[in-house]
Amino acid sequence: MQTSHLLGRVKSILLTPRAEWPVIAAESDTISGIYTGYIMILAAIPAVKVFLALSVIGVSMPFAGSYRIGLLAGLTSAVTTYVLTLIGTFIVALIVDALAPTFGGQKNRVQALKVVAYAYTAAWVAAIIGIVPGLGLLSALAGLIYGLYLLYLGLPFTMKCPAEKSLGYTVVTVLAAIVVSIVLGLIVRAAGGFGTFGGGLTGMPLSQATGSSAFSNHSAIGTGLNDYAKRMNDASKQLDSAQKSGDDAAKANAMGQFMSTAMGSGKKVESLAPDQIKTFLPDELDGLRRTQEAAERNGAMGMQISKATATYSNGANRTLNLEITDAGSLKGLVGFASGWAGVERESQSDSGFDKTYKSGGQLVHEQWNKQTQSGEYTTFIAERFSVKVSGQASDIDDLKRAAATINTSGLAALKNSGVAAN
Predict the structure, then answer these.
(1) Which of 52, 67, 144, 216 is the most exposed place for a label (fewest CB within 10 A)?
(2) Interatomic CA distance for residues 385 and 412, integer angstroms
């Protein structure tokens, strides 16, 4: 795409989207062509913004002025952001393509990538405004809102869905995109450098992206994304079949299954009931008596999350908080992070440290503040449950020891509880 055409397309999709979407939908294109001629150019804007904000302009800190990181560190963050933007765009396109039959549309991976890429234009361009200190949040919000509007307008043209179903299509796509953003955001935070991805975009050879296998299997992330795409395709077929059956119960179940797959778990999961998860709250924690407890289970769109919380105190000057969570269908997020995403991170300062690492095949997160003598220790069990102990202590080891007294083996034994059969 020539520069004049590129600028014209950006202008048209932002200013006259109703007229531009039919033109975009009718164009003959390829996935590699969309990437090299459009996505790879505009996606560089947020990456440049990251570099300028971190290493040139600086990040403003209330009452502390601003700080800048080194040029190499800033460049590393920018490149990492850029690569993950390219990957994330394609994953969302896979989801849009898989959802098409559910909303009366037609599956077409090229058209799905079109609608995602051109809808993202608003956010990418808005990043230019975000370079100005103090306008980052405003620009991001503006880009998000207008991007949703562009997606809503574009789906009927690109994916051939009925106009009256475009809103629902947009909402479900956005939910899936949020999950993708969370997972990739974890990677950005934990990676701390481009080396996590093997020094290049090994996961996505664009010249081959039009086939059934969109990512190279020569890397962990490529293998993971290929598996993700296959499971999404299978889930979409189930949705399509349920839609044709006219059975409302089957439709609801298939939607729950699809959303679970989109979240990475692959199967619909009923999280533990409040009474069941509450049994894992001990009467005492590190010598402190339990003074308060609560448990709840919440669900939406066929997905559930359960949580049990408790407060432990000596009645004087020490309190610990315990939180046990059953991620249910969202357990796939933990699998993403600890599996092919390879999430690990460590940072230290004069005030303390924050690190995420793998121990025994499971993710662990530690955070400690030396000044307040407080922190939190979280361990993930069977890629489904999390146990977090937080509060004041002499050091992080106190919180670790407290967490070690929780019946994590009992939680692990319930990793398949409520998991729907295929």
Answers:
(1) 67
(2) 8
**Domain parsing of the chain, residue ranges:** 3-262, 274-412
Phi and psi at 299, nearest 5°, equal -145, 155
CA–CA dist 216, 393 (Å, integer): 47
List the 385-392 sheet strands across, edge first: 284-285, 288-300, 303-313, 319-326, 385-392, 374-381, 362-369, 352-359, 345-349
Contact 326, 279 (CB under 8 A): no
Burial label, 348 (beta-carbon count in 10 A; 0-12, 13-18, 19+): exposed
Query: What's 269's DSSP letter?
Result: B
CA dihedral 151, 24, 81, 48 (to 10 degrees): -110
Per the structure block, which two tokens stand in for 220?
């962990």
Q: Compute and round to an integer the Cα radius of gyration of the chain.
A: 23
Q: Is 284 left (phi over 0), alpha (psi -120 to 50) or beta?
A: beta
Neighbours of 394 (CB within 10 A): 8
- What the block records as the tokens of 145 is 């809102």
In order along its 422 residues, the chain shows pLDDT tens digits of: 566 778 888 888 888 888 999 999 999 888 878 887 888 888 888 767 665 655 555 544 443 344 455 555 556 566 666 777 777 888 888 889 888 888 899 999 999 999 999 998 888 887 776 555 555 566 667 777 788 888 999 999 999 999 888 888 888 888 777 766 766 665 444 443 333 222 222 223 322 333 333 444 444 544 555 565 566 556 656 766 776 777 777 776 776 666 556 555 556 678 899 999 999 999 999 999 999 999 988 765 456 778 899 999 988 888 999 999 887 766 555 555 444 444 566 788 888 998 878 887 777 889 899 988 999 998 888 878 889 999 999 999 999 999 999 999 999 999 889 887 65
For helices 136-158 and 109-130, what crossing angle results, to 10°?
A: 160
Among 28, 37, 9, CA closest to 121: 9
Let me know: does 330 contact 305? Beta carbons within 8 Å. Answer: yes
Copy the structure tokens of residue 3. 């520069």
Gap between the Cα atoms of 167 and 156, Å rounded: 10
- DSSP states along 36-68: IIIIHHHTHHHHHHHHIIIIII-EEETTTEEE-
